[in-house]
Amino acid sequence: MWRNIEHRWIVFGLLILHIGWLANHIRWVVNDEINPWKLGGYAMYTVPSPRINVRVYDALNPEVRIPAKMLQFYAATRFSNIGRTFRCASIPAASFRGFFNENMDLIGRSLAFVFFERRFVRSPPSAKTENTGLVVVTWRDTQTFSYTSRFCGKQETQSGTL
Amino acid sequence: MLKLDPHSRLVRAVDFPAGGISQEANYFSKLSRAYEESGLRDRVPLAIAILSVAFQAYPQWIESPVRLYFHSRTVLDLFCAALVISAALAVFARTSRLGVGLFIVVAAIAIVPDWTIIANHTYLALWSIPVAVLFREWWKSDSYSFYLRMTIGIVMLAAFAQKVIAGTYLDGSYIAYLNAHGTPTERMFSFLCDSSAPCVYYQAISIFIVVWQFAVGILLLLGLNSLLFLAIEIGFLLGAGVYADEMNFQILNIALLCIIFRFGMPLWLLALSLGLLVLDIFRLEAIVKGVLSYVA
Prior knowledge:
- The structure holds 2 protein chains of 2 kinds.
- By secondary structure, chain A is α+β, with helices and mostly antiparallel strands.
- Chain A has helices at about 1-30, 70-75, 95-100; strands at about 55-60, 60-65, 110-120, 125-140, 145-150, 155-160.
- Chain A has 3 helices and 6 strands; from the N terminus they run αββααββββ.
- The radius of gyration of chain A is 20 Å and the shape is globular.
- The longest helix of chain B has 25 residues, at about 140-165.
- Chain B has helices at about 20-35, 40-65, 65-70, 75-90, 95-110, 120-130, 140-165, 175-180, 200-220, 225-245, 250-260, 265-280, 285-295.
- Chain B is built from 13 helices and no strands.
- By secondary structure, chain B is an all-alpha fold.
- Helices cover about 70% and strands about 0% of the residues of chain B.
- The relative contact order of chain B is 0.11.
């Protein structure tokens, strides 16, 4: 008997937790803070999938796109924000450490990481790729870099060491 | 001679005269009876729900460079095998709880770490499947079917709220977008409107989808237990699956509904579910394109 009562509390607790999660997800979507297709809020098929992407450019010569390996850049955020689901979150220094570990020839070079995603346009119904964020990486010495991020109207400067 | 079994949830024809077709029918009838009497019919839906996770996750795992950075292909194969084993264990009364336990272990190691990118389908599976471990015989538990009923009801209302808040359904703009830029199955209604702008038909389809999700959510929360409702909802889910070229999510929903309604999963629905899970790997889009190119 006591076990059934205990189970009942767990069941109600999980249902309340789920409702809270969904309500918070709606808040995130309304504030444009997340990719609506992710995080179990069932907002997929309300807009086209954003297909968030990042390209690397030479910060001193923005016309020049740099072909770079991105695997470790993404892998560094596997447990926190892989795929930039939280679209306004800053990039951790670990991502850049992973990036330069994989692209050692780019150490010491000023770089611009430009973030893109598809946004829904209602008239005519279509998807337009937009620039949604920028990170500029500069070097203090051969080991230390600083980077200025701009996401969702917020600017932040951080630093990291290889 | 037609014999009705009052203890069966389905009317079955048995005792056919000897003959090729009737022997096969007799064999199927015996198989169906054994399937029901052993209780497999009641437990198979959870196994299908677990399998839908494997079918959804594994193709993504082996194509993801990030996944292959953290785990070798062999380890990913083992995760998938463990999911299949947990589904098999979930089918039998003695091992069903163990199967759910194995699912929880695999989910904790292989699925939860990717919580920011996993599919909504997987989220629903994580909210629903592991809770079965709380109950000694989950397939007989009113609490578990109540929990699943509330969970699906809440999810339907959340999907409804997201569509209304996005505003892209009430004006028909998202369906218009799909008809102009979607996959071949998503363009199935494009004959209704002349231009890519939302017309009254796109708006009507969009509003129907939204109203349907709201109605299903409310009816589930109110405890409606009609098999007719279950049949219509299964039909709607399959239709939506064909439209979006995404069968995994629909099969998971169907499996959970079979538990909610304490209907179990009849053999024909089991065969259909397995067939659609396999078909989903190849995508309907590729099959439609193949057929069209063959016809052309």
